[in-house]
Write a structure and sequence with these properties.
alpha/beta; Rossmann fold; binds alpha-D-glucopyranose
């Protein structure tokens, strides 16, 4: 009896040079590239079954597999394969902990490996230009420096497991409204100073192996066919050696097959539209693109196939792991460190079980799971600890948990968003800046029943609080905290963990204070679907500071259960010139009674400049942990590049000579130490 499977297994792919894992990678790439027929090259340019490239059996090229997303691996849409649900990216950013981001990258890559995939479609590193963006929770921050530091850490962690990171969405995909057709109209200086840095850093410092082109146009040209962005900037200036993959169906409205090929788009996902075999053949026949263009794009994909070990024995590759206690503990650690204590009047927090008999725990998000609903960043964890469960478990046998505030010593009310329509979801921006009406009335009613009411917000983006913030003694921003969220929140509320999170995004008092919400033009765009980034570089705190607008809670803000004092600022020099470095040191003391962590932030201010510059720009941060009365000296280095702005006239970064100021603070608005120095040019 003829058994096809058995016969096939006898087919031994010749041990050709590219199969030899001892051969230098680029030689393997070139050998394989030469062996591909034109038709096989065409086949490699588009996806199959949503998450894979096509197999080329003749040469033993297996499918290259990629899965979402930024908070957990999602191998299927039914949730049959469970994976760890990590805190949302904005929560991880609120830790300001670079090392933790690196550990996150390693862990999520281990889960990609464990499910037999090769690339993670993450991290999402678009700047949070507006608090209304539906995907704010999926992105990290409003600040380019923090964005870059965290992106580099994640990409380095992911790729240490020989898994490709895919940084997204390149570029200026900062809103969901009309995301497939709008054009982000943005100046060169704004791109260079605000939107490029995290992508540039992930390429230049972490060697990102893949980048996802955005749905939207940038200055009138779609991301997937934008030759300036892809060939000139990404590949030409930054030296990107990986491959560009389109966002899913992002090529739908692009001009042509050749425009995408010549721009440098290697892989069209999830299926062939512009890279349909017949379209490719026709365009090639009519010489609308050359084999050289084609080869450069294919070479990039082959290179990453070798980098992830697609042709190597499994046992030569890093081992995968999934749903492990270590990954779950890491998820909880990120959640705990990302939680931001926004208000804590008369130290009502942490809660002392010895002094409490009954705690009322109410509110819609106390019982809500958040692993689903955000869109492509959803995933299916083996479990998710809801807030009510975390608190009940911790209080078991010690404090009674009830649901009537008037009968309780303390009330904890869980409010916020939960990926329901128009609230923290891909594909649409938020419909309102405030909390849902029913939640506002629940909060105001609860306060009347019990003034000792603590509000815990679970959301992936800033929300308005002006209706009630002055009436409650404490507010905690808990974000979407992953599968251990309930335990993390309980650990913070009862003081097992001292909160150390700092806001990675400004919380405005009212939406009209936001720089993106000056007019229809700036958001969601004009009648021609153009979104004008008129605020330019004045995004986030750069806008609020320069325009002297008081935010509700500023960038970099977060309270602790202890106190930190800053002293003894020292600058190594009064003047620096050329490439000389200035060393800045400061002492920080834990002057409270509890162990705690503090994020010391360093901002610079250009006191005299020929162009408009922000009042301050983040150029360094350090997270330190101190026992009560312990002191630590933190130090930063400042060089010419930290003093520079992008000069559109010359097309270069320029550090103008003159006086600068160093601002060391606990937030962008809580500057504790200042010192001046001069740059001599
Ligand atoms: C989505 C998202 C992108 C995601 C991709 C695959 O539309 O924009 O972030 O990775 O498609 O799901």
């Amino acid at each position: 009896m003829f058994d096809l499977r058995k016969e096939r297994s006898k087919i031994k792919v010749l041990t050709l040079p590219f199969m030899d894992s001892n051969l230098e990678a680029e030689k393997r790439v070139e050998d394989l590239l030469e062996r591909l027929t034109l038709h096989e090259k065409f086949r490699l340019l588009s996806g199959r079954k949503r998450w894979h490239t096509k197999r080329i059996r003749r040469l033993g090229i297996k499918p290259f597999t990629m899965f979402d997303g930024p908070h957990g691996v999602r191998p299927d849409r039914e949730g049959k394969i469970k994976t760890t649900y990590f805190p949302s990216s904005i929560c991880r950013a609120a830790t300001w902990n670079v090392e933790l981001s690196n550990k996150f990258g390693i862990a999520i890559a281990q889960e990609i490996r464990d499910v037999g995939a090769h690339m993670l479609l993450a991290p999402g590193i678009n700047i949070q230009r507006t608090p209304m963006c539906g995907r704010t929770f999926e992105y990290q921050t409003e600040d380019p420096y923090l964005n870059k530091e965290l992106a580099v850490a994640v990409v380095t962690g992911v790729q240490s497991q020989r898994v490709a990171a895919c940084i997204k969405h390149f570029i200026c995909n900062n809103q969901e409204t009309n995301r497939h057709t709008s054009s982000s109209e943005v100046s060169e200086r704004t791109l260079q100073e605000i939107y490029y840095p995290a992508f540039k850093g992930a390429v230049e410092e972490a060697d990102a192996w893949s980048i996802m082109s955005c749905y939207n146009k940038v200055n009138g040209i779609y991301g997937s066919e934008n030759e300036h962005l892809l060939r000139e900037v990404l590949m030409g200036e930054w030296g990107f050696r990986g491959f560009v993959v389109s966002d899913w169906v992002a090529t739908r409205y692009t001009k042509s097959t050749e425009s995408c090929i010549k721009a440098g788009l290697t892989l069209e996902m999830p299926i062939a539209i512009k890279y349909n075999i017949f379209r490719l053949a026709q365009a090639y026949k009519e010489r609308r693109f050359t084999e050289k263009n084609l080869n450069d794009n294919i070479r990039r994909l082959l290179r990453v196939m070798f980098l992830v070990g697609l042709f190597d024995d499994e046992d030569a590759l890093p081992k995968g792991s999934r749903n492990t206690p270590e990954h779950q503990a890491l998820s909880r650690e990120i959640a705990e460190e990302g939680i931001v204590l926004l208000k804590n009047e008369s130290n009502i927090l942490p809660l002392d079980m010895k002094k409490l008999k009954k705690i009322a725990v109410i509110g819609p998000t106390a019982i809500k799971k958040t692993h689903l609903g955000g869109g492509s960043s959803s995933n299916y964890p083996p479990y998710e600890i809801k807030p009510i469960i975390g608190i009940t478990e911790k209080c078991k046998g010690k404090v009674e948990i009830i649901n009537s505030p008037s009968d309780a010593d303390i009330t904890v009310i869980f409010a916020g968003l939960r990926h329901q329509e128009g609230m923290d979801i891909e594909g649409e921006d938020k419909v309102s800046f405030g909390l849902p009406e029913d939640q506002v009335s629940l909060i105001t009613k609860t306060i009347k029943d019990n003034p000792n009411t603590i509000v815990v917000l679970t959301s992936g983006s800033p929300v308005s609080m002006i209706e009630w913030i002055d009436k409650v003694p404490a507010v905690v921003q808990a974000w979407y905290g992953g599968l251990e969220a309930g335990n993390a929140i309980a650990n913070i509320l009862f003081g097992d963990v001292n909160p150390s999170g700092k806001l990675p995004i400004t919380f405005p008092k009212v939406l009209s204070d936001s720089p993106a919400h000056v007019s229809e033009r700036t958001f969601p765009g004009d009648e021609n679907l153009r979104v004008f980034y008129d605020e330019g570089i004045f995004v986030g705190y750069r806008h609020y500071d320069t325009n002297r607008i008081e935010p509700l809670f500023p960038f970099g803000y977060g309270l602790s259960y202890t106190k930190f004092t800053y002293e003894n600022l020292k600058l190594s020099k009064e003047k620096i010139a050329g490439n000389e470095k200035l060393v800045v040191t400061a002492d920080v003391v834990n002057s409270g009674e509890k162990f705690g962590a503090e994020v010391i932030q360093q901002y610079i201010r250009d006191i005299e400049s020929s162009v408009e510059r922000p009042l301050k720009e983040l150029k360094g941060f350090k997270k330190i942990r101190l026992q009560p009365s312990e002191k630590s000296t933190v130090s930063f280095e400042i060089g010419k590049e930290d003093l520079s702005f992008f000069d559109e006239t010359s097309g270069n970064w320029v550090a103008e000579k003159g006086k600068f100021e160093i601002l060391i603070g606990a937030s962008s608005r809580d500057v504790r130490l200042q010192g001046k120095f001069e740059f001599l040019g």
